[in-house]
Specification:
nucleotide-binding; alpha/beta; six-stranded mixed beta sheet; nine-stranded mixed beta sheet; glutamine amidotransferase; Rossmann fold; globular; GMP Synthetase, Chain A, domain 3
Amino acid sequence: CCLFINPTLKALSPTTTTTTTINRKHIPISSLMETPTMKPDTVLILDFGSQYTHLITRRIRSLNVFSLVLSGTSSLKQISSHNPRVVILSGGPHSVHAPDAPSFPEGFVEWAEGNGVHVLGICYGLQLIVQRLGGVVVEGESKEYGKMEIEVKGGESEIFGKGRVGEKQVVWMSHGDEALKLPDGFEVVAQSAQGAVAALENRGRRIYGLQYHPEVTHSPKGMETLKHFLFDVCGVSADWKMEDLMEEEIKVINNTVAADEHVICALSGGVDSTVAATLVHKAIGDRLHCIFVDNGLLRYKEQERVMDTFERDLHLPVTCVDASEQFLSQLKGVVDPETKRKIIGKEFINIFDQFAHELEKKHGKKPAFLVQGTLYPDVIESCPPPGTDRTHSHTIKSHHNVGGLPKDMKLKLIEPLKLLFKDEVRELGRILNVPVGFLKRHPFPGPGLAVRVLGDVTQGNALEVLRQVDEIFIQSIRDAGLYDSIWQAFAVFLPVRSVGVQGDKRTHSHVVALRAVTSQDGMTADWFNFEHKFLDDVSRKICNSVQGVNRVVQDITSKPPSTIEWE
């Protein structure tokens, strides 16, 4: 999980706004937020590059406790500015012995002790505590990966609770190094079956460590341990509610947008931008002007379906702009997915600027702000993971509303959902009375079908073929009653042709792929296991109904190693 974003932004918590001129340096998200309005019971997670860091955040938020992730290498000033009740040091792929191993800042432990802050190290975080406080960490003789059994040891443990000595539980391990000698004042409170330190604590200093990952479902009692630690050991209050966040966001929006200023909202037809628009509309009313852009990359009949929903159910002021020719002309001949995303992001901004000029003529003042439905995962995937050598890290992909924005964008961004995961956005939408059917819509990428047609989107009739295939696939899923069981489903147009036989004739036609995944937040995903009869029926419908397709394949790859989208 990473929480670095490309623009150098000055933002208000939890809403973020982007300055007019965007600098592309990578900065910690801690600098994106001011925290005076945050509740005192904030749990900060210092991320050292673990693939599970976002899960810790989600698990804690599910307990109605606000949790925020910062880079593991954040400064002490950045950490203390959030006034956290608890700081969790995440796992990571590093060894504490590596010369460039990331670590918490100097003075962190003294600051935590002096302010009554509880500290919990998980996996690499535990090893970091041991090494930095004078203990010894060595490379383990035998590595511990996957499910392992541990046993609670010693006297009464705070982190496990009373009466747990001798209790055994299965946990998820993922480490090669291990603690050989503990710092003074620490005691082992759990060991693995191989004798390695599985948990430690120093109750007097309020510092604790777990060598395993309590946040994953493979540690069945992990949530019980986290819950006990937060509420019984740390005394955290479960007082974070989505209703409070909504009210706070409305206040921030009103403080950001002056009483005579107007705001543009880019509606994509998806859940995120719709909830963002509804929230901003609740805050500033008719000074919000929504625009829905048909960029020629939408799904089958998407424009008419979405506009009907906006007008009939949401009562949002929406202007529809058909810019298909403008986008497709710019994408002609482009095959690189990152380039496609950048071009699309630039064209969107050009249209928004033009829309702003038209509004200026009408209202006498040019809108200064642009609302977007950027989510936490968008930010995470658009930037290098913290806790790593950033010169060697890689962006997974640029989301058009994060990494795809041009440097000279003239509108300031308002991104009220930037700290939320998808399920949290849906919860907020329910509070805002967005129709449930709309909230259940599968995610659709900002660049649209441009990232589902591999290669040049303008070549031949690729877009039309893909629209027809995708419509058959999604409608079949609905007819089978599976739509709400799937996080995201779609078709992909592949840049290959295959030999087939149709109508007793040899064909050399297109190949399409079907992808459907289950997920909670889009950060990780498993492929959906359809029944064979369903796949057989869908394949037959596609090949019989869509001219130019003679082969259908299914993508059965999880995330990781793949992303959900193909580009």
